[in-house]
Amino acid sequence: MFWTRIHRLSQTITARMALSFAVASACILLVLSYGLYSLVNGQLTKDDRDVLADAVSLLTITLREQDNNQFLLNRRLPEELNAFHFNRYQVRLLAKSGQHRVLFQSLHFPTALISRFGTTPLGREETCQKQGRTYLILQVQGLLGDHNPQPILIQTALETTARVNTLLRLKNSLIQLVCIGVFLFSVLGMIVVRLGLRPLRQFSHRIQGIRMDSLDARINIKDWPSELGPLADSFNRLLGQLEKDVDQLTRFSGDLAHELRTPITNLRVETEVLLEKARTVEEYRAVLEGNLIELERLSKVIDRILLLAKMDSPQLALEMTPCQMAPLVSKLFDFYALLAEEKEINLSLTGDCLIFGDEPLVEQAVGNILSNAIKYTPPKGHVRVRLFQEANQAQGLNQDNLQGVVCVQDDGPGISPEHLPHIFERFYRVDSSRSQIIAGDGLGLAIVKAIMDVHDGDVVVHSESGQGSDFRLCFPTPPVESVTH
Ligand code: ADP
Question: The domain containing residue 403 runs over which residues?
Answer without folding.
Answer: 317-484
